[in-house]
From TrEMBL:
Source species, domain of life: Bacteria
Keyword vocabulary terms for this entry: Lyase
Organism: Roseinatronobacter alkalisoli
Record protein name field: 4-carboxymuconolactone decarboxylase
Gene3D superfamilies in alphabetical order: AhpD-like
Enzyme nomenclature, EC number: 4.1.1.44
NCBIfam families for this protein: decarb_PcaC
Enzyme class: lyase
InterPro entries: 4CMD/NDH-1_regulator, AhpD-like, CMD-like, Decarb_PcaC
Length: 128
């Protein structure tokens, strides 16, 4: 593996948590290994590994971009990641308000619905 892959895997684990990454790695197959390598090196080993902005800011940007582009499936995963990135619930809501203005109220509304449900699940797990 490359240094970028190793860095990416370390950042990915730091942001998403070991349990999530372990599940993803267990589900990996020969078919999707090239894709998994691409996102580990590109997204995690390059973009998320950069220290040009904080992980809190990167988390907010990622959530806003996912909502703005209608990529809702990954929003709960990145909401859970806020526990590791330092983005607060208020930070997330501020990002989604930007989405409402610049990309549309329906997308922001759906993202907020997902965020609220995910934050509630996280809180319930913490109190269990």
């Amino acid at each position: 593996m490359t240094n970028r892959f190793d860095t990416g895997m370390a950042v990915r684990r730091s942001v998403l948590g070991d349990a999530h990454v372990d599940r993803a790695e267990a589900a990996r197959s020969d078919l999707d290994t090239p894709f998994q390598t691409l996102i580990t090196e590109g997204a995690w080993g390059t973009v998320w590994a950069s220290d040009a902005i904080s992980r809190r800011e990167r988390s907010m940007l990622t959530l806003a971009l996912l909502a703005a582009t209608g990529n809702f499936e990954e929003i709960p995963m990145h909401i859970r990641a806020t526990a590791h990135t330092g983005a607060s619930q208020r930070d997330v809501m501020e990002a989604f308000q930007h989405v409402a203005i610049y990309a549309g109220v329906p997308r922001a509304n759906h993202a907020i619905k997902l965020a609220k449900a995910t934050f509630a699940e996280m809180e319930a797990a913490d109190n269990a």
